[in-house]
Amino acid sequence: MLHRSFRREAVHGLEGTRVGRYVLEDCLGHGDHTAVYRAWTPAGDWCALKLVDARAQGDEDLAERLRRDAAILDGGGHPHILPISNPMRADDMTAAAMPLLVAPTLRDLMGGGGLDAESAWAILSQVASCLDAAHHQGLTYKVLKPANILVSQGQAYLSEFGITGRQTGQLGLATPGSQLPEAQYLAPEQVLGHEPDHRADIYAFAVLVFELATATSLSEGAAPASVLARTLQEPPPSATDRGGRVPADVDCVLRRALARDPQARPRSVGQLMEELACPPAPAVAPAEPVDMVIFAAAPEEPAEELSVDSLIDVLSGVLEPEANLADG
């Protein structure tokens, strides 16, 4: 095979190029300063190779951070995280290999109608499990969005774990040519350019739940600059108002998970899932003491708890509208 020389100015259009010991074939997907290629080694091993333009992303230490993350993940890997391997610097690029899994992304399924309610809940549960496992090991995913979740035979897999530079949020938007697709998944602290921790993943996971439950984008198709401004300046939208079928108590859970203050969010993604399945009762201020009771009001019927089954019903309302019409 005739290989072109490695081009330093971009990560795009590198088919047939060697990066380290990897030979790049077709491009599987790309961003402004990133790309994922189907690649193979002289030993005949196939993989997906992620390239990041380290100059544009402003993160000279990305390869070293990926080596540390890879070592941690190798020591306590999770079946739903596609591990990264052999992180390296290649000229002005950072490269990292991942298992080659050709499968639709969750974004594909959300847009193509190929997702039923029980499958959506199962995917959320799997993603929550591996995020909590990673957070327990001190790792942050940082780039959680449907396009980075692969779904194969009902199983969800997080790809590109931690493979992102520091140029996100307003810093990333300031980079010439940057588009920041799905900017609504960036937590406010990321928009401000701060180094995110696990609470940014909780925020992004809540955005994912919001969009699944309402069948709408949190950003409503706004331009990235407008999305970032809303994230910092406006309260999160109401899932009940947007989706109609989302119960008010679930809406409250999502609003808390989408709080601008990271400390106001649930402690973990697992806790968020528990609250979605069984929303906590709203806090009520204690009544002022009175000297005399004139009459005793009849006790109210206890509010019905939202079970996992009923939450799946909510998802069914937006993911399977034809079935609802047929029932009517």
Q: Mind explaining what this structure looks like?
A:
38% of the residues lie in helices and 14% in strands. With 328 residues, the chain is of the alpha+beta class. The longest helix has 20 residues, at 117-136. The protein has a domain at 61-84 and 101-281: Transferase(Phosphotransferase) domain 1 (Transferase(Phosphotransferase), domain 1). Residues 1-9, 165-179, 284-306 and 322-328 have low confidence and may be disordered. It has a six-stranded antiparallel sheet. Strands 7-8 form a two-stranded antiparallel ribbon. It has helices at 54-57, 62-75, 106-112, 117-136, 169-174, 188-191, 198-214, 224-233, 239-243, 248-257, 269-277, 308-319, 321-327, and strands at 18-19, 22-30, 34-40, 46-53, 85-90, 93-98, 149-152, 155-158. The radius of gyration is 22 Å and the shape is globular.
